[in-house]
């Protein structure tokens, strides 16, 4: 390729910024830029290492060749998949799509075939890792324009706990429903099989929108068994990293709502492919996204072009956002304004958002020596490890 080619990638940069995000910036010889997000909560340095490898491989390549770059990034290193590599690929892929959208002056959904809806339904988190004050949080969300929230089902649980430990979950769900709001209940993989069956049964008839990760993603057969016992849709997918990971779940017919994470599953390219697979099995698409504005915009761009897209997780004021929040690095936060439970389609070129590059660079420089976010480690009263 001639060095004068204006579409060659001249730089692949990444920025570690609070609260726990990893942004990617791709620049081409003609000055176009695209933002991506490679956030992998608790494993930032590992993804940075993978991004250095990708930068060595793809600086000098044509930024227009998104699929060729994706395939080489995935297949070219012999070892495939997994959260670290796929998060790095995700950040690069999202940035390339954003760059191409800016170059062509089109939103990404137009490059995916055009939008099938004019707005996106969203939900907000209430409570934290240890659920408390969720009702007051739901009231605040309702005032902010949300019609749906999601909460953690339980605190840490033993493999077999007293059934009374499940009663507060039911009480919280009922209180939120009395506000006239929909609610999703996230088990977070922390409820083991014996207790998960009891909790799902107890939630029957309470009007729950879905139960998320009722069991760990290593248990596809058990998840299918559980799905056959309940009418509540089973949602999962944040810890599945490629379309191949989805195969056993879709063929098992146990999933009602698919929740791939655009920053973990291979970016816009792979999220779009997974969306089509979910549609083939009549599974709703509701991307996982407790992350930053780049990941959220990427989810929305794919969702706007996907028939089976139903609702979007939105991390505004989520409990993890301590030093910065969803709107901190946006030039115009109004693009994510929530009205009557929806966000209007992002119609500007690329991702449809504008990142404050100067602020990102300044913040990353200041935060370079700071300790990164780590996944909590929970233990029971006897010292045994519990699922977070």
Automatic annotation (TrEMBL):
Residues 131-233 form the Mandelate racemase/muconate lactonizing enzyme C-terminal domain. GO terms for molecular function: lyase activity. GO terms for biological process: amino acid catabolic process. InterPro entries: DgoD-like (IPR034593), Enolase-like_C_sf (IPR036849), Enolase-like_N (IPR029017), Enolase_C-like (IPR029065), Mandel_Rmase/mucon_lact_enz_CS (IPR018110), Mandelate_racemase_C (IPR013342), Mandelate_racemase_N_dom (IPR013341). SMART domains: MR_MLE. The keyword Transit peptide does not apply. It comes from the Eukaryota. Its cofactor is Mg(2+). Keywords: Lyase. Gene3D superfamilies: Enolase-like C-terminal domain, Enolase-like, N-terminal domain. PANTHER family: D-GALACTONATE DEHYDRATASE, D-GALACTONATE DEHYDRATASE-RELATED. This is Mandelate racemase/muconate lactonizing enzyme C-terminal domain-containing protein. The lineage of its organism: Eukaryota, Fungi, Dikarya, Basidiomycota, Agaricomycotina.
